[in-house]
Amino acid sequence: FHPDTQSISYTTLSRFPPVRLLRASERKRILVTGGAGFVGSHLVDRLMLLGHEVTVLDNFFTGSRTNLSHWIGHPNFEMVRHDIIEPFMIECDQIYHLACPASPPHYQANPVKTIKTSFLGTLNMLGLAKRTKARFLISSTSEVYGDPEVHPQPETYWGNVNPIGIRACYDEGKRVAETLTYGFHHQDGVDVRVARIFNTYGPRMNPQDGRVVSNFIMQALRGEELTVYGGGKQTRSFQYIHDLVDGLIACMNSDYDQPVNIGNSEEFSIIEFADLVREIVEKVQREEGMGNVKRVGVRDMAMPKDDPQQRKPDTTRAKEVLGWQPRWTVRMGLEEMTAPQRVHITLYAHTFTM
Ligand code: NAD
Ligand code: UDP
């Protein structure tokens, strides 16, 4: 124990995962907006284990308290129900600004609210960063590239977005959030980081959120046909959550203030991805001794409007400026996510929460 270390006894806190003991000078006060969601809760886990003080702001629109129930009561942890379209005051050193619904059905359910979250929410959090001199990281998205005409997509590509289409509330919301971020940077000297996140999957994805990974896994586990939209020739590149958390923390702690793509460049057509998911789920079911494992088929459904036809990150910059590159192949991530001990939980509790 260093004299200035908060003395946390592992014995008295044994109901919590063990957190690192940091000197007070190393321990940061970190605000995570959207911390109760899929990405946010994994990020909070890592920041807590690293020994920081973490405050989560979330309105629980798509996130849930249960994603973080294992930290409730820990002296380094606080969770506040708050909608970021309203200002919030707190002293902090770093802000990870993640709050925003991310799946198309959720962000399209109330497009005006999605835009307000991206614009007013980001404005409020940047105002907070300006006042407290906290470093500010925004979770932007590959959607700023829209339906890209450049492939793979480097950070220098300006994108091809329909400004009035059904995805615009999210895509244009994130684009204006980036604009605001650099406005505060140039005008007020706010220290900013911009992570452009590509499709990410992992435990705690909301199984009802309509994204392709959770849909396919839930459908395969239930023995239902996999719903492939528009023939499934469109492509995506999927990264596992642990790689993303590494990338976000590396981005925050780097001295690089321009946008950085964080994604895995393993690219699949959606129909290839459906084959991979059903192969892995069948393997898990056989290992579980589930007897005659039925091969599920696919059901062709209409292509949603403005669905990007190809997507794959150019991650050269992340490698150069952050020293970051993904370590999980898609197969490894899917196998971990659907591992036998999880499948029971998944089917029983209808969630990937564990
Ligand atoms: P998610 O829906 O699981 O999490 C979003 C969280 O933000 C939820 O906990 C939700 O309740 C909260 N939230 C939404 N609106 C809010 C508001 N107005 N005030 C307070 N809290 C609010 O989504 P996710 O996949 O965890 O995404 C997190 C962030 O990462 C988002 O900003 C998203 O745009 C970005 N991102 C995610 C992916 C991905 O593949 N998961 C890809 C690109 C970008
Ligand atoms: N998709 C699909 N079946 C589903 C859900 C999605 O074929 O059940 C397709 C969707 O049309 C898109 C891709 O999978 O081309 C990824 O969709 P997702 O909603 O996961 O993310 P995004 O479109 O935002 O990348």
UniProtKB/TrEMBL annotation:
Subcellular location: Cytoplasm; Golgi apparatus, Golgi stack membrane
Top-level taxon: Eukaryota
Family: Belongs to the NAD(P)-dependent epimerase/dehydratase family. UDP-glucuronic acid decarboxylase subfamily.
Protein's name in the database: UDP-glucuronate decarboxylase
Organism: Phellinidium pouzarii
Shown residues in whole-protein numbering: 120 to 473 of 925
